[in-house]
Design brief:
The complex is a heterodimer of chains A (544) and B (134). Chain A is α/β, with parallel strands linked by helices. Chain A has helices spanning 37-45, 61-64, 78-90, 102-105, 129-135, 154-167, 184-190, 197-214, 226-231, 235-255, 260-263, 277-298, 327-341, 361-377, 391-413, 416-423, 425-443, 473-487, 490-506, 511-519, 524-535; strands spanning 68-69, 72-73, 96-99, 146-149, 177-179, 218-219, 221-224, 267-273, 311-315, 346-348. Among the domains of chain A are: 35-65 and 180-428, TIM Barrel; 473-535, no CATH class. Helices cover 49% and strands 7% of the residues of chain A. In chain A, strand 9, helix 13 and strand 10 form a beta-alpha-beta unit. Chain A is globular and about 75 Å long. Chain B is α/β, with parallel strands linked by helices. Chain B has a single domain, classed as 3-Layer(aba) Sandwich (Rossmann fold). Chain B is built from 5 helices and 5 strands. Chain B has helices at residues 18-29, 43-52, 67-80, 95-104, 116-132; strands at residues 5-9, 33-36, 57-62, 87-91, 108-111. In chain B, strand 3, helix 3 and strand 4 form a beta-alpha-beta unit. Classes of the chains: A alpha/beta (544), B alpha/beta (134). The A-B interface holds A 102-103, 105-106, 108, 114-118, 121-122, 186, 190-192, 230-232, 318, 321-323, 354-358, 431, 434-435, 438-439, 441-442, 451-452, 459-461, 464, 466, 469, 540, 542-544 and B 12-18, 21-22, 25-26, 36, 38-40, 42, 64-66, 69-70, 73, 92-96, 111-117.
């Protein structure tokens, strides 16, 4: 044991009297800290399932339906991921969440020069609608809800999914699930962009507009500040940025003449849940109230569902450590609990080995078990919003809402989400905060067990089970895609791709032409190239 | 004494750039001249930049799991271009791959979780030892 002495020894800074976002915290809270007294509080809260939805989007919350346990999974070939999906469903997971490899996310086929070394690594390789059909072989798409973490190529992937469903005899109207399709956060933090911001916004809106007509049970976007948070910003900035993005998408859609009440009920949201338990719970409650206000006051929502925020919570990878990796199981458990107390509709729990690798099957199973134990053994699901009325949590909820509103105003003063991004404003918040956090960690200002306090010299590798990547998967995928290209009706495919290019250039909604192209066997790379030719590619300016 | 020149880049398609930017800022504040090339660089582009910038150290960061193939190709490109600057690799590198990277010829590996001061000191030490060679 070579650890430094604990806080009692005074060598590591005290945890501090602010939240992680820097909100001052008093030693104790009383009724006097809740603004306006009980009747004003009751109006700010409402009941669960009632405006302004502070206490949750549904009246019965988890008594009516548990959150969806949605572990993010995907690697290698469609068959391998299909097997992982079946394994997870067999272990009690209640929905699927597809991780795509980087070439698929960026619109390159597996045989592209830039795809080398990346095929099937961080997710599954999907080149064609045939691959998508293989991915879901034997999994009934009218029954399984599927989440797709895909953004720049979201319209293309949705098209291949619609064709895969069609081959199962499932109509678009039966499909449930979520397409991430939030391109703004790619420019902000996640960095898997392809086309410049303007055309990217248009493609995202094409998907939402198309879905508002054809996919009544499907969420065509998941608007998120999660990645900005993971890249460095704090909980308040995360909420402000998420709402700024939501406003930008809604303005794009209402600008097309779409009625807000028509598309807004299917908007979904995605937040991080990190370790500052009460701040995170308060943030999720504040998010629902803030969105209700924006939807009603700014967009004139006329139906409650258009102002009801539903959310997915992703636990935070950046809170996990490479040192003493089993400690991450505890960290993830607390984060999952925070998401539940905050009223999330679906949850992903990180693998304890994510500082080293794509999680092993053992780590993924443990993440799922974490959710199941919280759901079934702790009793936290018995009543909605169990922390509602806590002087501290209500005070924090009010404070976070007002601070996030101030962030939102700052973004608006800089021209809104798209313009602020182009100016690099939120990127600077993120980078500066990330650097500060790293310096604080090194200086011991933020205690991190196993890192700057209670550190040991143990080899972390002893606690890990190596994930088993399949070295032959990439070659097999490349061969199969080439065979499929050789076997298709080349002329019909070329015609469909030509039409796609024309619709992209002509400002028509690209979804119908994409579905035709996917049906004709066009590859993800070819469909993306059709867009590249019309829109060009984005290159990030130097950060300093 | 001239400032050490460090070329940093994200090879492959991975977009996780929090770590490399933090390292770039740390090196800059420690007095180094940092040339950060950005995302989606090919090994050939990185080698060309290392030559053009007369790099003392070349650093790449990979969090997609593609580090072995990308490091191997970068080292080959640097050899072809007769650049002897040491190469360092950061990212989500499992312990068993860290050893393999060193055997390939990578001078230092900084897996996720390495404290920033250790990364900065490690890179500057490599830059200094190269500068000392006549």
């Amino acid at each position: 044991m070579t650890g430094r002495s604990g806080p009692a020894g005074g060598s590591v800074g005290e945890p501090g009297v602010t939240t992680d976002s820097g909100i001052p915290v008093s030693p104790v809270y009383t009724a006097a800290d809740v603004a306006g007294g009980p009747s004003a509080l009751a109006a700010r809260l409402g009941l669960p399932g009632e405006p302004p939805f502070t206490r949750g989007p549904y009246a019965s919350m988890y008594r009516g339906q548990l959150w969806t346990m949605r572990q993010f999974a995907g690697y290698g070939s469609p068959e391998q991921t299909n097997a992982r999906f079946r394994f997870l469903l067999g272990q009690g997971q209640t929905a699927l969440s597809v991780a795509f490899d980087l070439p698929t996310q960026l619109g390159y086929d597996s045989d592209h020069e830039l795809a080398r070394a990346e095929v099937g690594r961080v997710g599954v390789a999907v080149d064609t609608a045939d691959d998508m059909a293989d991915l879901f072989a034997g999994l009934p798409l009218d029954k399984v809800s599927v989440n797709f973490t895909i953004n720049a190529t979201a319209p293309v992937i949705l098209a291949t999914y619609l064709v895969a469903a069609e081959r199962q005899g499932v109509s678009p109207g039966q499909l449930t699930g979520t397409l991430q399709n939030d391109i703004l956060k790619e420019f902000l933090a996640r960095k898997a962009y392809v086309f410049p911001p303007g055309p990217s916004m248009r493609l995202a809106a094409d998907v939402i507009e198309y879905a508002s007509r054809a996919l009544p049970r499907f969420n065509p976007i998941s608007i998120t500040g999660y990645h900005a948070r993971e890249a460095g910003c704090d909980a308040v900035q995360e909420l402000g940025l998420t709402m700024a993005s939501a406003i930008a998408y809604c303005e794009e859609l209402t600008g097309r003449g779409l009625a807000f009440d028509h598309f807004a009920p299917r908007l979904s949201f995605h937040f991080a849940t990190t370790l500052d338990l009460f701040e995170e719970v308060a943030k999720l409650r504040a998010a629902r109230r803030l969105w209700h206000r924006i939807a009603t006051e700014r967009f004139g929502a006329g139906v409650p569902a258009a102002a009801r925020l539903r959310l997915f919570s992703g636990n935070s990878g950046t809170t996990l450590t490479a040192q003493q990796p089993l400690n991450n199981v505890i960290r993830s458990t607390i984060q999952c609990l925070g998401a539940v107390l905050g009223g999330a509709q679906s949850i992903h729990v990180m693998g304890y080995d994510e500082a080293f690798q794509i999680p092993s099957e053992e780590a993924v199973t443990l993440s799922l078990r974490t959710q199941q134990i919280i759901a079934l053994e702790t009793g936290v699901t018995r009543t909605a919003d169990p922390l509602g009325g806590s002087f501290y949590v209500e005070h924090l909820t009010d404070d976070i809402e007002s601070r996030a509103s101030a962030i939102l105003r700052e973004i608006e003063n800089n021209g809104g989400a798209v313009r602020a991004l182009e100016r690099g404003l939120p990127q600077k918040w993120i980078t500066d905060a990330a650097y500060r956090a790293e310096q604080d960690l090194a200086a011991g200002h933020r205690p991190k067990v196993g890192v700057n306090i209670y550190a040991t010299d143990d080899d972390p590798g002893q606690a890990l089970t190596p994930a088993q990547p399949d070295p032959g998967a990439a070659e097999r995928q490349i061969t199969r895609t080439r065979q499929r290209k050789a076997g298709r009706d080349g002329r019909a495919c070329a015609r469909a791709l030509r039409q796609l290019g024309q619709d992209a250039a002509g400002g028509r909604n690209v979804m119908p032409a994409l579905v035709e192209a996917a049906r004709a066997g066009a590859t993800v790379g070819e469909m993306s190239d059709a867009f590249r030719q019309v829109f060009g590619e984005f290159r990030e300016p130097a950060p300093w | 004494m001239t400032r050490p020149r460090i070329v940093l880049a994200k090879p492959g398609l991975d977009g996780h750039d929090r770590g490399i930017k933090v390292v770039a800022m740390g090196l800059r504040d420690a007095g180094a001249e940092v040339i950060y090339l950005g995302l989606r660089m090919t090994p050939g582009q990185i080698a060309a930049a290392a030559a053009a910038e007369d790099a003392d150290v070349v650093g790449i960061s990979v969090l997609s799991g593609a580090h072995m193939a990308l490091a191997r190709e970068l080292l080959a490109r640097l050899r072809e271009a007769r650049i002897d600057a040491p190469v360092v690799v950061g990212g989500t590198i499992p312990p068993w791959d860290a050893d393999a990277l060193r055997r390939l010829g990578v001078s230092a590996v900084f897996p996720a979780g390495t404290p920033l001061p250790a990364v900065v000191a490690g890179v500057l030490r490599l830059a200094g030892s190269r500068a000392a060679v006549p």
